[in-house]
Amino acid sequence: MQGRELNQTGRRSWQLGRRPSSPSMTPEQCRAARELLDWNRQRLGVRAGLSSQTVYAFESRRRTVLPRTIDALRMTLELAGIEFVAEGGDGPGVRLRTQHAQDAGALPPSAHSPRPG
């Protein structure tokens, strides 16, 4: 069945049909991505199907979270327009895809220009 698969415990789980482009994300990348989207922990948690406390625990490194939790956070951020940048000279990072800037809360360019009269 499309969209469903059995997990390791034999239970059915719903999948969004795509996996994150990389299996992990750092807490710093998560915080930076939220800042780019102007999201608080609660908004990210709700969209990822998690509690804001879980988001806080991951970002603050207070406790280890399950890989599937990190996957859910990352996938939610990617669907909102975040691109995860591979580790380079300055380490891993994030950036906002331009076509998703409006969805993330930024005003479209036309909102800044006067309307023709």
Explain the overall architecture.
With 117 residues, the protein is α+β, with helices and mostly antiparallel strands. The protein has a domain at 22-102: lambda repressor-like DNA-binding domains (434 Repressor (Amino-terminal Domain)), CATH 1.10.260. The chain is 35% helix and 16% strand. The protein contains 4 helices and 4 strands. It has helices at residues 27-37, 41-48, 52-60, 67-79, and strands spanning 4-6, 12-14, 82-88, 91-96. Strands 1-2 form a two-stranded antiparallel ribbon. It is globular and about 30 Å long. This is Helix-turn-helix transcriptional regulator. It comes from Pararoseomonas baculiformis. Residues 1-12 have a biased composition (Polar residues).
Distinctive features:
117 residues, alpha+beta, two-stranded antiparallel sheet, disordered C terminus
Q: Per DSSP, what share of the residues sits in E-state strands of 2 or more residues?
A: 15-25%
Strand order of the largest sheet: 1-2
N-end to C-end Cα span: 55 Å
By CATH, the architecture of the domain at 22-102 is named Orthogonal Bundle
Largest sheet, in brief, is: 2 strands, antiparallel
Helix and strand run: EEHHHHEE
The tally of helices reads 4
Annotated CATH topology of the domain at 22-102:
434 Repressor (Amino-terminal Domain)
CATH superfamily placement of the domain at 22-102: lambda repressor-like DNA-binding domains
Mean pLDDT: 75
Rg for CA atoms: 17 Å
Protein name: Helix-turn-helix transcriptional regulator
Organism: Pararoseomonas baculiformis
Region (Disordered): 1-27, 88-117
Biased composition (Polar residues): 1-12
